[in-house]
Amino acid sequence: MKIKTLLLTLAFAVSSVFALAGEGPKKNPAAMFELDEAAAYEAVGELSNIEKLAKDSDATLSELDINADGLVTNVQLDSLTNVAEAPLGIPSIVWGFCFGLLGMVFVYLMTDGDRQEVMSSFYGCLAAVVISVVLQLAIGLFPF
Amino acid sequence: MRYRSTLLMLIGICLCTLSSVYGQFYQRVEADFTIKEQLTDSLSNLTFGRAYYDLGQGKLIYRVKFPEREIWGFQDSVFYRKTADTTLVSASDAQAVRTSIFHLVLSGDLDNFGLPDTIFQKADVAREEGKIITTFQPIPPYDKVLGAIYISKERKVVTGVIITDKEEKILGKQFFRKYDMTLPLPFPQELIQITYRKGKAYYRITTFENIQYNVRDDEEWYAYPMPTTVGGTE
User: Fold this and answer.
1) In this prediction, what percent of chain A has a pLDDT beyond 70?
2) Nearest CA to CA, how far is A15 from chain B (Å)?
3) Residues 6 or more apart in contact with residue B130 via CB below 8 angstroms
């Protein structure tokens, strides 16, 4: 009887060990360690130009005048290669002309403070003010 | 005369032994680092500079050169950040230093990613496709919320770490590549980290160059004064 109990206990213990061994990872661990190297390099590849530029000139981001907050977007990378883009495709001077100060603020925000674009919107705003003043003077002097 | 010769010989042997022992003990490591990171689909980050780590002090100093010249310091649970205009001292995860590549290499914990003596315990070791893969499982009650961590080794160095959730869904991967085996302690010159958010992979590649151990000339950085208490901005 004792031997039977012992054998049953042993059988239970062995089956438990095998059952636990079968609780391994559901996926093939070696396959999980595969790396898509090309995808990794491609994902950050656009930063290599800035890296080279900064290291060669020992300059910080603000000195390079890319972006003040340390983050670089695709659009801003484009601007590095002189592919500047107007806000929503509408020239900044038109934003200033049509929307005045509000247009200038919009251009400032959309271009991350691009001095050239903001000045362009300022000239648009100035032109709108001058035309408005001239028209009001003309209407005042020569009422219909 | 005879005693003097014996004494000199003994002193010589002691000095040789001491210098040999000291030469094999690496307390400090420094390296140029470059981090390129994909934050979102349209946003990326580039940071580079030089890092200094002292194992005895448990202090990690980053002398950041880009995007701006700053100093970041980590020690215990304190994070220190000094820019041109401001100084910030805040609380940090103490694990930030212990899981840094610098600490893992110097302490010899890179082999097991520092997992022993934590809430993880070794559960399995298997050899697959030339890799030795060790599985670490969280101990109860942490196994209710955490999943396994897999570590792969090839040619006696760690090449990858995979972190999973409790459903064995992969949360992140780290690949330690391009080891410089000519160094006294092999150091990976490239670290690729992948995190998964909403099913999409985001990459971070860190490269290390000019890796040096036990440099005596950069005391200024190893002895950089770190605040011991948290709080305060100047």
Assistant:
1) 56
2) 18
3) B154
Which chain A residues in 65-104 lie under 8 Å from chain B, judged by CB atoms? Answer: 70-75
pLDDT tier at A45, thresholds 50, 70, 90: confident
Residue A48 · residue A56 · CB < 8 Å: no
The Cβ-side half-sphere exposure at B226, using a 13 Å CA radius, reads 24
Residues 17-56 of A with CB under 8 A from B: 24-30, 32-33, 35-37, 39-41, 43-44, 46-48, 50-51, 54-55
Query: Looking at chain B, which residue has its C-alpha nearest residue A78?
Result: B42
Q: Say if CB B49 and CB B32 are below 8 A apart.
A: yes
Q: What are phi and psi of B159, to 5 degrees?
A: -115, -20
Give A25-89 as a 3 state SS string.
CCCCHHHHCCCCHHHHHHHHCCHHHHHHHHHHHCCCHHHHCCCCCCEEEHHHHHHHCCCCCCHHH
ipTM: 0.79
- Tokens 């670290």 locate to B191
CA distances B125 to A84, B135, B152, B153, Å, are 55, 6, 10, 11
Average pLDDT along chain B: 86
The partner residue sitting opposite A29, judged by closest CB among B44, B45, B126, is B126
- Taking CB atoms and an 8 Å limit, are B133 and A35 in contact across chains? no
- What is the pTM (predicted TM-score) of this model? 0.66
- The two tokens of residue A28 are 């093939």
Distance CA B16, CA B70 (A): 42
Q: How far apart (Å, rounded) are the C-alpha atoms in residues A56 and A71?
A: 20
By the 8 A CB rule, do B195 and B206 touch? no
Segment (H or E) for B44: strand B43-54
Confidence of residue A31 (pLDDT cuts 50, 70, 90): confident
